[in-house]
Amino acid sequence: MLVGSSSAAGKSTLSAIICRILHRRGIDVAPFKTLNLSLNSFVDRDGGEMGMSQAFQAWACGLEPECRMNPVLIKPHGPGRMQTIIEGRPREGTDLREEAFERAMDCHRSLADDHEHVVIEGSGSAAEINLRDTDIANMRTARATGSPTLIVGDIDSGGVFAGIYGTYMLLDPEDQRLVAGFIINRFRGDDSILEPAIRRLEEETGMVCMGVMPYMPLRLPSEDSMDLGSGGSLSGDDVRQAWMDNLDRMAEQAERCLDIDRILSLLRASSS
Amino acid sequence: MQWVKEKVRAELVVGLRGPDPECEYHPCHYEGQDCSWCFCPFYPCEIHELGDYVRSSRTGEMVWSCVDCEYLHRPEVATYVAKRVKELFITDPEDPRLKSLFKELQTIHRPRGKAIMVLGATSDAGKSLTVTALCRIISDMGYTVAPFKSQNMSLNSFVTRSGDEISRAQQLQAMAARMEPDFHVNPILLKPKGDSISQVVVDGRPFADYDVRSYYGEFIPQHGFGIMERNLEYLKRKYDYVVMEGAGSPAEINIYDRDIANMGAAKAADADCILVVNIERGGAFAYAYGTIMLIPEEDRRLVKGIIINNMHGDPSYLDSGIAILEERLGIPVLGVVPHLDLKLPKEDSLGCKDLEGDGPDVAVIRLPRISNFTDFDALEMDGARVRYVTAPGQLEGADLVVIPGSKNTVGDLEWLRSSGFANHLTTLAGKVPILGICGGYQMMGSVIEDPFAIEGDEPSTVEGLGLLDITTRFDSRDKHTKQVQGEIAAGGGRVRGYEIHMGSSDRGGHDPLFLIEEDGRMKKEGCLDMGRKLMGSYLHGLFDLPDFRRFALDLAGCDAHRGEDRDHKDSVEENLDILADAFRKALDMAVITNEFMEVMGSDR
Predict the structure, then answer these.
(1) Cis amide bond preceding B27, omega within 30
(2) Average pLDDT over chain B, rounded to whole?
(3) What pLDDT does B139 receive?
(4) Best residue of B128, B216, B257, B285 to probe chain A, by most A CBs closer than 10 Å
């Protein structure tokens, strides 16, 4: 599972990249995200509504998108008003959280039964301590699914070590045990300059750095408003094809920057 | 010492005199010092921030020495003392009331500036805005205050009255502090030139170019610390408060020992620090906790408060998180500042945002090395829609096209060609007005000569867009930096701005755009081709006064009378007050005044 130290840390893209790399190695993998807060939705073959980013990650896995890959979708419309979609269908009523979580875990179970591995994406920051009891999309999902977890931090906006360290430290001790490592995303320049800081972070937390991803001005479908205006290029006629071309270029780069074997062994350990 | 007493008696009688340029020692401390109290009526004050006991070489006795003290030479301090001396009818240097007057004086103006530092958990945390707000709040309380940022990386720079270049953000903060900005408020300015090389400006003047490695490896240890300490000391001597701004995050542990912009400066100034986190991007609690805990323990004690910034919605939503954070860190959250929509100049390229007016449509070409895009903030006052465009197709429908300033004229000119803008601009000439500012002006010409490789890596002659018949030559490393005023050459009113550029342009046969006042004469500046609707100028800030906005929008055929007929500065002033009010409301002001400002026994 990938969780973020902030919104727009690059979880969706990194999940898609990892899905893509594993798929290209002939591994049967599927994407999953418990809850998406987004206005960018996709409709699967059966007419079920789901988050755009999971649809895209499904394509990255060579799969047809299904709404069980994103069982809960919340579409904000206007201040304080939102529509809740569970397993592809709008739901009336309030206080849906526990039901939504249970159904989401059912969906995850069925996905895990059908596929060798599942790559899970968290939502927003994993350490929103004011939401500790209400957040179902991050560590609660990791606990319920027993997933080894990586924290993704965005270095482009500064303070990435503080963000990753703080995220780890504010988790409950039982959740900290699930966190295996971290990924530094969107780095520009020579990454040897980061070495001493990475080592210190590893020593202080016991997490392992799974890689430093370079900043890439390529565009994938953006998930929510935090991503708007982050730029990037997209060329060609068919936008889906253009996204996939960009994703393949990122995946090639990521093969060199991420410790894929280590990530794969984490997946194997948890799926067995 | 009787003669000294007589001097003081004379001073008490005369009162405020201001500077004394006739004096053979003037200025013994600094330009603009007040000379009313050449002999101090409070001697020996025994305030160890102002002087010390030393052994007299003549008599061997311990005497109070305060040769470097500038306290009573500060105009506001001298004025206050003169006012009170007059009110109390003190004329005798032995008057015991002088002692209590001195105590009172220290509650009004601090003998030595107190530093408060604003740190950010991320680069977009809102440090700059917080410093701006605190400067205005402290100034509103009647104290003198100066902003300070030892090192700023920005392409938006400003030229001070003495022709020194500082960052635009510190200029705005100085305005909030109601002080005339000089280079001391931002002694190191990094202007990225591309390929991770920056031009480093020191004390307002170009110093040298560095890449990241040599900047931290050579510049910082050899020069950086000294520059930071010297300028901080200067401000602390002259102002009651110095509000310092950090750069990026203070917890970049890989460069911690070379960081003169964050805890390095905080330690040098013994500043009480406030950490600002931006709640909008998520993970604010984690960033706050991580930032503070990654600062080494001996420096961490300087961090005494946290501000949560940019909150959309009800702040009480954060209460449970704030309680946990305060408990785990033992540091109070001073307040939750709401998201504010203010009309204030933006700081850096992250802030290069479209203005969403419904008036004239202004397309600014988003050059890869765009600089001084604060030039366009003033257009908001005409309700203009300002769009930063990246593809020629987006020029469609524009009433006015602007080629803005650039940190790399030749490089960005190449980009104009490869992106297709160059051809498109040629076809637009005569139909839609095109305005080039500074680097954009140079690009509009026919040739750019760089015989000494000042812009590029090797000597070159580059063909410009050929819209204007001008030649630009980079013939010396001298940088033109000055504030200017004048009028629109074709009539229509005043213009005010500032120039920052290398190279100079001959104007070919074109009419000038502006007439600039220089040494009592009117100097021609820029180009105007009325027929082809082409304008070019070196002046940044040219839209600040309403007259040129009107002129350019008239040329664009827009209804120019809908705009606000006033100086952009007035609008900025208004917004600074709104900003300060919002912070006053959001923050625990008792903690700010008692703990951070150390205001004691004063009821202000």
Answers:
(1) yes
(2) 91
(3) 97
(4) B285
List Cα–Cα distances, A244 to A39, A50, A51, A236, A250, in angstroms: 21, 19, 17, 11, 10
Which DSSP category does B67 fall into?
T
**CA–CA gap between residue B338 and residue A267 (Å, rounded):** 42
Phi, psi of A122 (to 5 degrees): -80, -170
Joined together, the tokens standing for residue B52 give 């010390």
* Tens-place pLDDT, residues A171-205: 999 999 999 999 999 998 777 889 999 999 999 99
**Cross-chain CB nearest to B324 (options A5, A129, A229):** A129
Catalytic member of B29, B109, B184, B540: B540
Res. B345: pLDDT tops 60:
yes
Give percent of chain B above pLDDT 70. 97
**Residue extents of the structural domains in chain A:** 2-271
B281 to A132: CB separation less than 8 angstroms, yes or no: no
For A2-271, CATH number out of 3.40.190.10, 3.40.50.300, 1.10.3980.10, 3.10.25.10 equals 3.40.50.300
Band of residue B602 on the pLDDT scale cut at 50, 70, 90 = very low
* Mutation target vs A (from B252, B279, B320, B324; most A CBs, 10 A cutoff): B252
B339 assigned to active site = no
Chain B residues touching residue A170 (CB < 8 angstroms): 285-286, 289, 324, 328
Residue A220 in this model has a pLDDT that exceeds 80: no
Nearest of B83, B71, B143 to residue B107 by alpha carbon: B143
Domains and CATH numbers, chain B: 2-108 (no CATH), 114-185+223-344+578-596 (3.40.50.300), 360-557 (3.40.50.880)
Provide, rounded to the nearest whole percent, the portion of chain A with pLDDT above 70: 92
CA distance B367 to chain A (A): 14
| Residues of chain A contacting B368 with CB distance shorter than 8 Å | none
The partner residue sitting opposite A159, judged by closest CB among B251, B293, B318, is B251
Q: Do A161 and B285 touch (CB under 8 A)?
A: no
Q: In the predicted model, is pLDDT for residue B346 greater than 80?
A: no
Identified catalytic residue from B438, B501, B510, B527 = B438
Q: Is residue B431 packed enough to be buried (19+ CB in 10 Å), middle (13-18) or exposed (0-12)?
A: exposed
pLDDT in tens, A59-74: 999 999 999 999 999 9
Torsion (CA) B190, B192, B197, B200 in degrees, nearest 10: -20
